[in-house]
Specification:
With 240 residues, this protein is mainly β. The chain has 2 domains: 4-153, Sandwich (Jelly Rolls); 164-235, 3-Layer(bab) Sandwich (Phage tail protein beta-alpha-beta fold), CATH 3.55.50. Helices cover 13% and strands 42% of the residues. A 7-stranded mixed sheet has the order 1-4-5-7-8-11-12. The chain has a 7-stranded antiparallel sheet with strand order 2-3-6-9-10-13-14, with no helix packed on it. The chain is elongated and about 60 Å long.
Length: 240
């Protein structure tokens, strides 16, 4: 059994890694999105390279986010037969408690991102016991083990991955490629000289090679392939 100490964020962080992800209850491969219906009726969707463990008992329902990003949609409202046990998402930095809602959670290095699409959640950081912040629909934030940042507004990019899309709105090329890199195996790099170029568009995640092939039509760049899994985006005029 997973005892009370084992659900602490500190232990979760210490066991996070490839081995734990491979042994998780639910997981997705690189470039894959998967959906699951849990025993209580909760809908769980995993983004690329994600893994979670479930710890449901008589008193609570706890989802431990081992790696990656998830969307959680709970049953709520009149006639929904909602489960009365609290639903919690545990990350390395703290806990997100569902208040009857739909929300996304992403585990980043030393911080967690949360975005609420419906209703609300309550965030508790690991290093500030008793201190919480309620996040409402249309709000998103990040938190560390010590603090929860002030919320900002969600946008279409927030849950685009749940529709198999990658959205860019005047986004820096290096930031765009860093996000794209999550969805493909191997290595994706950008020449620093063009890192600040900006692009906008809606890109289908089902074919990341096609996204890269599209870049030269919208920016003065080209893709330099060393192997099938090693690509660098360089200036269009760079010597071949």
């Amino acid at each position: 059994m997973w005892g009370g100490l084992a659900i602490g964020a500190g232990l979760l962080a210490s066991r996070t890694g490839p081995w734990q992800a491979n042994m998780a209850d639910f997981r997705s491969a690189t470039g894959e999105q998967r959906s699951f219906a849990l025993e209580d009726g909760t809908q769980l969707m995993l983004n690329t390279g994600s893994a979670v463990n479930l710890r449901f008992d008589a008193s609570e329902r706890r989802i431990l986010l081992v790696a990656g990003e998830i969307m959680v949609a709970t049953r709520h409202g009149p006639g929904s037969s909602a489960d009365s046990r609290p639903l919690l998402v545990q990350t390395a930095e703290g806990t997100i408690r569902s208040l009857g809602t739909r929300f996304t959670v992403r585990q980043r290095p030393e911080r967690t991102s949360v975005a609420v699409l419906e209703s609300a959640v309550e965030i508790s950081s690991q290093g500030a016991p008793g201190s919480t912040r309620v996040l409402h629909a249309g709000e998103q934030t990040q938190f560390s083990r010590e603090t929860v940042e002030a919320p900002g507004s969600t946008d279409e990019q927030t849950d685009a991955w749940t529709r198999g899309q990658l959205l860019a709105d005047e986004q820096r090329l290096d930031d765009f490629l860093a996000e794209l890199d999550r969805y493909r195996p191997g290595m994706l790099r950008v020449d620093p000289r063009i890192a600040g170029l900006r692009l906008s568009g809606v890109f289908p995640l089902a074919d990341t090679d096609r996204i890269l092939a599209t870049l030269p039509s919208v920016l003065p760049v080209r893709v330099q392939w060393r192997t099938r899994y090693w690509a660098t985006v360089v200036p269009a005029d760079r010597g071949r």
